[in-house]
Amino acid sequence: LRRRPPVEARPPLAYLPEGVDAVAEMNGLYWEGSCVRAFFPQMSLLDAFVDHYPHAHFILNVRDTTEWVRSVGEHNDLRKRLIAANLPGLPPGAGGRDEELVAWVEGHHRRVRETLRARGAKLLVFDIDRDSGAELEQFLGVRVAWGQHNKTRR
Predict the structure, then answer these.
(1) How far apart are CA 87 and CA 140, in angstroms?
(2) Average pLDDT for consecutive 10-residue bins of the chain (154 residues)?
(3) What are the Cα distances from residue 138, in Å, to 59, 94, 121, 135?
(4) Could you give the angle at which helices 65-74 and 98-118 cross, rounded to 10 degrees?
(5) Calpha distance 25→15 (Å, rounded)
(6) Are 87 and 81 in contact (CB under 8 A)?
(7) Using CA atoms, how far apart are residues 90 and 88, in angstroms rounded to an integer?
(8) Is the pTM of this model over 0.85?
(9) Local structure of 91: helix, strand or coil
(10) Is 72 helix (H, G, I), strand (E, B) or coil?
């Protein structure tokens, strides 16, 4: 559903089931043998998303980078997968040092902000630790049930 459209020169979400009007987590990062398969369309297809969905509401989830790096390190083997993967702006082998991950995520956030603002797209920068459902509801114009559903247990 996620990889076929760009290869076939179709809009990025062309194969979503009818009636789907929101996508929350679209990336994939998983082991296949000793290799990591990675696809982050929100990074590699950002321009295509804005081109094909100019009236979409884009939400950039952010948090304090120190907390984000801590969370990455505590979430199963996520950091190992990030280091092994070949991602836009984070080549294989990078990400072992906190500074590398911070530079990568800050670069992504900056690119999203700059790209969407330059194109006049609707963007909400949403701090997952500070903001609430009220900001989401105001931005989207619908009721939202907001809460932390995948918190890493310590």
Answers:
(1) 30
(2) 71 88 88 94 93 95 96 95 96 97 98 97 96 94 81 62
(3) 12, 38, 16, 5
(4) 120
(5) 16
(6) no
(7) 6
(8) yes
(9) coil
(10) helix
